[in-house]
Amino acid sequence: MSLVRVHNLAVSLDGFATGVDQSLESPFGHAGMRLMQWFHDTATFRRNVGEDPGDPTPDDAFAARWDQGIGAEIMGAGKFGPPGWEDDASWQGWWGEEPPFHSPVVVLTHRPRPALTLGGTTFHFLDTLPRDALEAARTMADGLDVRVGGGPTTVREFLAADLIDLLHVAVVPVVLGRGTSPWTGLDGIEDRFVSESVTTPSGVTHVTFTRRPRE
């Protein structure tokens, strides 16, 4: 069966994966780009936005894995747009006419709307539970893996439902003080996984959790 993977989940030293007061102007809230600057400096990101990728960095060894073998993504409403986007029928996401996913994407929202195709990406808006969303995404993925792309609340829900096979967390050396944690209510979840960590010259520690064989 295909795997369910999380990649490039950036978390601050105090455990927050996004800030407060998310808006159209501030997709990560008061955190700004502090959590994701390491990713924006990688050849993977620069290539995806049409820039000269330059030389790969040690962080790129992790960043580049995000689309390898992926056939579909699942994301929460907060990743698709700022608070209130469901009330705007013209909202098409943050990414313009050519989103970087190039695959089917399931958007979890309590306000479903018709599917939206932009470039090589089709967004499907579903009001459903994690396990049912995964079943739909697996059908769309055509045998490839499914990525849970975030935000942190969605990742937490899939972890709580024991649906994640691989989890890559980038621990970034910043302190946010407040925000949304992906770990709330998940005490002891590390026991499900084998973990390994690598710290790069940027100061980011990449922690990879691989699911132990299910009994």
UniProtKB/TrEMBL annotation:
InterPro entries: DHFR-like_dom_sf, RibDG_C, Riboflavin_Biosynth_HTPR. Gene3D superfamilies: Dihydrofolate Reductase, subunit A (3.40.430.10). GO terms for molecular function: 5-amino-6-(5-phosphoribosylamino)uracil reductase activity. SUPFAM superfamilies: Dihydrofolate reductase-like. GO terms for biological process: riboflavin biosynthetic process. Pfam families: RibD_C (PF01872). This is Dihydrofolate reductase family protein. Residues 8-190 form the Bacterial bifunctional deaminase-reductase C-terminal domain. It comes from the Bacteria.
